[in-house]
Structures are given as C-alpha cells and as structure tokens.
Amino acid sequence: MKHALLAALIAAGFAAQAAENTTYKGLGADSVSADTLEKFRAKPLDSDLSRKVQGVLDLRAPGAGLLSPDAKSLYFGWRVTGVAQVWRIDGPQAFPVQMTGGEDATSIADITPDGKWLVLSRDRKGEENPGLYLQPARGGELQVIQHIPGVQTFFEFISDDGRYIYFRSNDESRDSYTVYRYDLQGKKKERLFGEKGYWSIIDHKPDGTLLAGKALSNVATEVWEWNPKDGKLKPIIGQAEKEEYDVRYGARDGELLVQTNKFGEFRRLYKWVAGKFEAISPELKWDVAGFGLDKPKSRLFYSINEGGYTKTFALDAKTLKPIKLPEFQGADHVTVSGGTRDGSKIIVSVETATAPRTSYVLDWNSGKLTQWVLPSSPETDTSKFAVATLETYPTRDGAQIPMFVRRPAQCNPAPCPVVVHFHGGPEAQSDAGFSPYAQLFVDAGFIYVEPNVRGSDGYGKTWLNMDNGAKRLKVVTDIEDAAIYMKKAWSKNGIAPKIGVMGGSYGGYSSMAAMTMFSGSYDAGVSTVGISNLLTFLENTAPYRRALRVAEYGDPVADREALIKLSPITHIDKLKDPLLIIQGASDPRVPVGEAVQMYEAAQKKGVPSDLILFADEGHGAQKRENQVASIGHTLKFFERYLKPAK
C-alpha cells in the first residue's frame, strides 16, 4: 500500500511538473514559426467528402438583419461568398445586392437615422481586433472610423440626431476600454471617458447621458451612469455585488428595466424605480434569456429559454400589458430584432428543426407579416432532418444532465457509433433547432449528442456557477459520466457503441480532458481551439480576456493547484486513444501554443494524433475553405476510429 501511494505521489508530481514546464510564450500567428504553420497546413480532402461538406455549408439562412429607416431596404449578413459579408435587398424577396466583399469578415452594426450611411464592423484573419467603417447606404467605398492593428474597436450606438457614432476601444490599454464618440460631420473622434475595466455602453438618453456596464466576469456586471455635463460616472446598480445585471432605460423617466437572477434561481425581468425592483415577467423555472425595447420605447420584448427552446413575448412599454405576437406552430425558436426607428415595423425570426431560420417583417399598423429573406437549402430535403430529442443522463452524484440527441433512422451494424459534442463558453448552452452540422454526422450514421453539463447556461444560477474556479474539480466528471451512460444504455446485443468526443473552445478543453483525465471513456477525440493547460492559457491569452477568464477558471496564484489538476496536459500520461487538434494561428482567446504543446506531448506518448493549423484564422474557421477542411477532417477522423473497418 505504501509503495502504491508513493508511486501515485511521484506520478502526480511528475504530472504537475509537466504542466509547470510548458514554456511557450506569446499570442497570435507571430508566436509560431512559418515552418510550423506550413508543416501543419490542412491536407486536401477526398473530393467526395469535400463535396458533402460543401453541400452542408450551403444549407443556411441570412442573418435577421436591419431595416432601413424608411423600411424599403433590409441589410443583413450572409456567408454565401465563403466569408461573412453585408448584403441588401430592396423589398420582400427581392434580388440580393452584395454590399461588401474581400477576405475580411464584415458585419453591419447600424444605419444612420437619415438612412444615408451604414456603420460596419470588419475583422482580419479572425484576430477579433475589428475596426469600424462607414459605407454609403446604396453601396460604395468604405471610410474608416477607426481600425488599429492589435486593437479592438466596437460599435455602441448612433445618437438620435444622427450626429455622433459612439464606440469603445482598448487602444489606450489592452485590458481596458475607453469610450469615444465620432462626429460624422467633422470626421473626428472625441474621448468621453476611460476607466480601468471592461466597459461597454448599455443604453443612452437623447441628451447624451450614457448607461454603462462594467463587466466583472462573463456574467457579473456593475451598472453606472455617465453624465455628459461633468464627465463623471455615477454608480447605479451592482457595485461590488458580483451579480448579473442587464439594464435599459425604461419608457418613463427614472425607470430602468433590469434582467437579473439576483432575487431567485432564474433570470427574471424587473422594473427598477428609485432603488426598488418590481417583477415584470412571471416567476418561471426558466430564464428570461434576453430583452429589448423598440427605439421609441413603446414596445418591450423579452424571450424565455425553456430548456433550449425560445419563446418571445411583447408588452406595452408603459402599461406593461401584453401585446399579441404572431404564432408559429412547431417553432423551436422565435425571436425579434432590427425594427425601424419609428417602431412601426419589427423583424421576427423563426427557426424549426427541419428548416433554416426564416425572417419576417411585422407591420404593427396593419398587422401584416411579410417574409423578406429566403433561406437556401439546395439539393436537400430538410424535412427529413433528424429532430433533436431532449433527454438526460445520470452523474455519479445523482444529478441529471440534459442533452439533445439526434439519431439516424437506422444503424447497420448496430449499435450506432456516437459523437458527443460539448459546447464552448463554458457559460453557453446547446439548444434545439436547425443544425446542418449535426445532420452531417447523423447522415454518416452517428448518434449526435449535445450535453449541457453543470456550468452551462439556461438551468438556473446554481447550475451555472457549479464549475467556477476550483469547484470545477467536482463536476468535470460530468464529461466521463456521459460516456459511461451511453456505453451501457445504448449497447446492442451486449456490444457497447464506440464513442467520440468533440468541441470548440471550452468544448475543445472538454474533449482533451475526456481523452486524458478520463482516458478510455471515449474512443477518439477532436479538439478545436481548445485549452490544454489552464495556466499557460491564462498567462498568454489576450489581456482584455484575462480578468474575465480568471473569474471563471480560477486565479493562477490562489487556485494554482486546481488549475494544474484540471489541465489536460497534466494527465498526458493517460492518453491512449487517437486525438485530432485543430487551431487558428491568429486566435486571440486560446493561443496557438496550447494546440502545439498538446500535439507534441501526444506525439511523445506515441498515441495516434494529428494537428491542423490555419495560418489565416482565429478562434474558429471563418473562411469557407477552412470550414470545409475543419469539418471534413473531423468527420473523416471519426469515420476512421469509430466505425468497423470495411
């Protein structure tokens, strides 16, 4: 017994030392050599597989978009060129006109009140350092407002008189945000305020008063009000509370609308006047997932997340009496967005399991609902898509983990192999709805599973906070318990299914943890932009993210032991099954060094492993050819290791 304990302690010491000794430094494409990028360039796919993936990428809907002030045009995002760009249609189901082009992902932020200018956001190589631009509403060259290499510039809003564009940027300090306004006539920017912290503008008044949010973590926020007369910030809600608040100015003077879970397990919508909260939404065992008002502040909209399905409601903003919205039978998600400035029209988006998202324009005056944008599903009958069923699996301590499951019509031979996809975040949620990506695996004969393990959003704040910091040690076993359940419950004739694990970002971390910490539970794993070592990740991630990530994962000093235990690379000696790692070199969130060090460690173990690096991508593939490569190699990998040899 003493020898066994000594061996365990020695092994733990070596593992901890391995985690401590990872020494890469830096962030972005410059932190890795050109030879390394070339060596791990994605290899060409078989033409049949490439065509299959290409076909899936064509099953899509344009973004919901923004209506012009006169409601005669709709501007929206679309990836039909292979990169996200801005498009315009001049009437319901009109022929789309491409507004922006090139290799840089571009999105529309807003339209000036006179309808003459578009405000656009453009990023380069997935670096997440976007710039702001102006473009004439009928098309033409872009005019730069601000785009600085290595700096983030985020749009906030356009003043009601159309004179100023407000934005924030970390140009003064990479870990904090300064708020500016840009004079459209004078073509000059003016600094408004710059305080230490992750600041954003939540709402504004016509006189220039700003409602500002200071993020303390990915969920916790303090709310402040900035006075344009004296340039000072006044505390409003949440100071030093570390609570979750989303706030807007209400329809009446002195009134705020607040979404928070401070007073209960679930997020609820409240009216706040003179420091007192009054509930607006009913008390439910589901979260209010979001809310907003139209620009005249005449109508209030809020959505409820019912276990991964979305319902939206409307109220009169002053009386809070219900307003009837159109009903859509069989819809998994119904949301509203992008209304006109006068509030006469709103965009309603509808998504089902068997059709891409469809967007309509609702005219409040006539009650007429008009479909503007047509989704595309070439050469595919999406009505045959597998519908996700909401199921659960048990954990070793008695919790029930919700999961969405999509199954092939039949498996030959049985049992079907399984692919488990863990979402990112970690404060995110897998939900129901239309998923060509999931269907690609179902069509290939895999059961496709998306768990919402503890730490996921949508199931109350206790569930959400169960993996914060060192507490993650107690619930990370949810990853292993999924495989334990599936191998037992989904076996056929005494044969357990082969199970693969995959995910991106935190889901990539989960995949690497599954293959190392819980070695043997999964038969193959694919990690995309995943964290291999929580310590090196926190040391090298972008400064603007570090403080928010420390609040979630733990402090590198105070929680060092837990971070080492939770790092997949600490458990590299347990790795025995095939692992594929995919990473963008320009990723500002998860440094490319995380992928390289994990691959090198796997190679030293002699385990079948591969690495794909995209030199021109960041936190996930944006360009079509890279998306095809990422998806295609993932599918090919699971076909090879989860299915019997032919």
How would you describe the overall organization of this protein?
There is one protein chain. This protein has 646 residues and is of the alpha+beta class. Among the domains are: 33-55 and 387-642, Alpha/Beta hydrolase fold, catalytic domain (Rossmann fold); 104-231, 7 Propeller (Methylamine Dehydrogenase, Chain H), CATH 2.130.10. The chain is 21% helix and 32% strand. It has 13 helices and 36 strands. The strands form 8 sheets. An 8-stranded mixed sheet has the order 29-30-32-31-33-34-35-36, sandwiched between helices. Strands 1-2-3-4 form a 4-stranded antiparallel sheet, with no helix packed on it. The protein is globular, with a radius of gyration of 25 Å. Mean pLDDT is 93; it is low at 1-16. InterPro entries: 6-blade_b-propeller_TolB-like, AB_hydrolase_fold, Pept_S9A_N, Peptidase_S9_cat, Peptidase_S9A. It comes from Chitinimonas viridis. This is Prolyl oligopeptidase family serine peptidase.
